[in-house]
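Quick illustration, no need to memorize.
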Amino acid sequence: MKSATALLALCTGISHQEANSFSATHHQPTIKPIKTTISSTQLYEQPINLNQLLGTASPATMQNYNLPRDTIADGLSAQIITRLNKAVDDTRETTEIILVPKNTEDHFIDTFRVEIPIPLDSPGLGIELLELEGGREDGLGIVIVNDLVPGGNSQRALDEKTAAQETIMYGDSISAAELILRRSGSTTEDRTDLLSARTECLGYDSTVGALGGLLSKLSDEDGGSNIVEATMILTLRRLRRRPQLQVKLYYPPSQDLPPETIKLLPGDNLRMAMLQKGVKLNDPLAQRYDGKPTGSGNCGSGGLCRTCAVSVMRGDELLSPQKANEKKMLEDTPRWRLACKSWVGYEMKEGEISIQVNPRQW
């Protein structure tokens, strides 16, 4: 592994050679290629946007899913992703290398951004990096944050952060960086320049080179003139545990079935999850909203037939909010939800949800 107590001479005064002269034991990451297709999810009959449905998770909520240091160090891997663009006029493939969890069942990679003001008289980040994997000829690897330099620009920025902002901690990997430069004009209006670099799954030397290349613009004889303000925005990726939701199902007395609990993850659709567990969800007594006769089958998650309606007795706040059409359909039964239009884990929260199946039969 390779580390440095600061990032380049731009951080704390150690030379570039010193920053890169630490002894290193390299471990070459195993990079698995996979091929995916950009398209709507195959799990649902109707296209969905999960990011929109699940809302925005607060940093305070996400802190609950941080992992111990040893789990982070041993839990990261890299993967080559080839995406096939299925647009009518564009069939090109794009390839990128991304950070992934080794244990995809229990962990996931979260992405967030942190803004760091860069004083012009002290143009550095003040971040100590640690190389977990590297030594490859192609410059690929896995580099994480080991610590923040006391008194450095990153530490000062985080000391002033609000509760609505993420922090930087051990194990975070810098995926990308953007340097925003505001310049004054003598005869024209101020202008803003944006410089960027992608650093995801690069080794130590490549990461330092990319970030240092951005920061060097602040002292460049040509590029550094007329700069009045500089800000670095880091895109960070963090290994976190997956939040879990316990959904307890209660069946009508006539079905003579005991309650059961199923475990779901944020983003799981309630209807699909229950059907995959073998739950007889579609109610033959349901009166369809689309005018078709009762008992004529379900609408394939279109939100028209009401055959998948359930009664939520507890944990309604953990479901994606109702949209206007669903509210209108169920206005006489405010505790009911259409399972096909309910995604669990709203705002990435975990907890318990209690549901009555086939509520018309109670």
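The first strand starts at residue 2 and ends at 3.
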